[in-house]
Amino acid sequence: MTTSHLTASKIGQRIRPGTEVAGGFFRMCVLTGKALRQPFEWREFIWNGWFLMRVSLLPTIAVSIPETVLLIFTLNLLLAEIGAADVSGAGAAIGAVTQLGPIVTVLVVAGAGGTAICADLGARTIREEIDALEVLGIDPIHRLVVPRVVASTLVAVLLNGLVVAVGLGGGYLFSVYLQNVSSGAYLSTLTALTGLPEVVIAFVKAATFGLIAGLVGCYRGLIVRGGSKGLGTAVNETVVLCFIALFAVNAALTTIGVRFGTGR
């Protein structure tokens, strides 16, 4: 066998596992979409929604407050340099709605929500609970995956709204009471660059982030192998995969928002 054949064989062996994982992920996505038509597991959905909100709420607040202060402080310094501090409300709104909310949602959903889902399902997989469900004739996708994906999507939307509210409220307090910006000017310019299209795009981003994080977390949890060590590896991989996918989606949806936004 020639060197080129050996090299091609090694490359094929490295590529094949990746293609199998990608194929399995898309297959699970299709099965999840089909399972949505069946009777919905409301109890599992409510429990997982509460669980995800509980593990994500404090990290969301902890990340959004310093991000808000940094964004508004830097923006107001730049506006003050050109004598336009009174339009800081417009900058705070466009920053909080289009970027701050989605970015913080990405960090929290991927770092807390997706990993929590992966750890939960991964532990069930290691304990062979998933196999037991299949033996009993219960579809794990319908029983476990669908409620978690829907809960992750809804929680991401709620977190995005929370981050935007914290951003605008924190921006108001910081601008008016610490940087001496007129409160009337701040409030009157909030909608100068931010309208319904930006708000819709922001919530579409959040829903998409939650959907992707839920799907990735569920898939990595269902294919865990290697006991507790494999579960730890799967959780770490979930964070990385979620970050890559969510930041790519954020860039694409931001481009769409700029194309059709109020500021055009």
Automatic annotation (TrEMBL):
Species, as recorded: Mycobacterium europaeum
Domain of life: Bacteria
Name under which the protein is recorded: Integral membrane protein YrbE1a
InterPro entries: Permease_MalE
Cellular compartments per GO CC: ATP-binding cassette (ABC) transporter complex
Molecular functions per Gene Ontology: phospholipid transporter activity
